[in-house]
Amino acid sequence: MRNWLAVFSVLLMLGGCVASKPFNPSKKFSPKELREDYDIFRASLEEAHPSLYWYTPKDSMDYYFNLGKSKLNDSLTESGFRYVLSSVLSKIRCGHTSVRPSDAAAKYNGPQGLSFPLFVKAWPDTVVVTANLNRKDSNVVRGVVLKSIDGKPIAFILDSLFSFLSADGYNTTHKYQTISNGSNFRTLYAVVFGLKQKTPVEFIDTAGNLRTAMLSLYNPRADTQRRATRPAQVLSKGERKRLELEQVRSLRIDTTLHTAFLEVNTFTKGACLRGFFRRSFKEIERKKIPNLVVDVRGNGGGSVILSNLLTKYIADKPFVIADSLYALRRSSTYGKYRNNRLVNWLFLEFLTRKRKDGRYHFTLYEQKGFKPKSRYHFKGTTYILTGGNTFSAASLFAHSLREQEDVIVVGEETGGGAYGNTAWLIPDVTLPHTGVRFRLPLFRLVIDKNEPKGYGVQPEIPAPPTVEAIRKNEDYKMEKVKALIRDRSGQ
Description:
The structure is a single chain. By secondary structure, the protein is an alpha+beta fold. Helices cover 33% and strands 20% of the residues. It has helices spanning 2-15, 31-48, 58-70, 78-89, 103-107, 154-162, 173-180, 184-193, 237-248, 273-286, 304-312, 341-351, 393-401, 467-472, 476-489, and strands spanning 28-29, 76-77, 99-100, 118-123, 126-132, 145-149, 152-153, 198-204, 210-216, 249-254, 259-264, 291-295, 319-320, 324-327, 353-354, 360-361, 369-370, 381-386, 407-411, 420-423, 428-430, 437-439, 443-446, 461-462. The strands form 7 sheets. The chain has a 6-stranded mixed sheet with strand order 10-11-12-18-19-24, with helices on both faces. Strands 15-16-14-23-20 form a 5-stranded antiparallel sheet, covered by helices on one side. It is globular.
């Protein structure tokens, strides 16, 4: 078996050495190519996605599949094709099922053209500008509340953008947060509504006045303002690794507040979390810190093993993370289009068991109780900070601890579902003509059948954004937690 795996690995590496053509973002694919890719896209989902009809009935999904294909009568660029697929996938209501650029498009670093200039923070009924790339614009600045763009109410704009975004069930917190992440709003707005050199916007300024202004597109070539740059600092490989790890997980202890702040932005295996958790909880115990804040607002998930490990340091009794966990099948007619095909097949073949319902269950995790850690176990009060980016394994962490008496969840509804999700093994399917990829989760995980279906883990103490906090660039969730700690300790 080892020799066979070695040969297979070499073949994979050789296959990866084939030179690829430079990516051309303007290249268009014929309707025939698009439809053939689309047929593989649909058939792959219908064959293997275990929650395709979890929230949307089959007749409705058939309608959306057919509607998507009807948009392929003309040639499209890869970008245009991706957004057709995204509009269909959003109807499944699965946050782990999403479209990704082709490998060539993902690596493309060509010249940037005109773009919509605004970054925003969005939540129900409110969209606040957080930055304007046109730095000389003295009207539409950070803190203004957008009311309309190009005559379209901001609620209509958000609703239109949401139709391209995937989320677990009926969760909108994750969609609002996705719109607020990076350049997502700018990119989606351009795709859905197009770009104009001058666009009228209506907004409420920082003094509370309703105003209008003309918004210009951002032109990176015309932006002559350049900050003085220093020669890049040469870092050793070890130093670069240390800085990278500090960005995804860190521990800070505030002795005045008697609180440890543990920020965990991922549960991926490359983050060296086992040793980090052990050292962190050892230090917390040594310094006898009574309060712990676990910040998972930026944690999109990763390994359930690592999520469970963190839970074990805090849980006061055994916990269960899966009422049921199963896949529909072990093999696939379209397996040649998937990555990690061998690894996933081995997992399904040797670690799942077919039950009377005809599904392949991963029994190792179904109804299994995980025991808390005994060494360096935290016995004080834990505050878990959550938000729309808290997803997948991070939602499992919050859900497992939420009902514990000495644990308080603060913030917003998690982006990941509390009832369940579709994830675990998630190969990329690469469509042969366009190279566009989409994520295809193979397992349905019912976390807690007693939870309301289609929503995230709810905070015990809400800490939603406010316009004033965004204007002041305040960390409103963290300030809420600190206030709670001071109140409980009488400071």
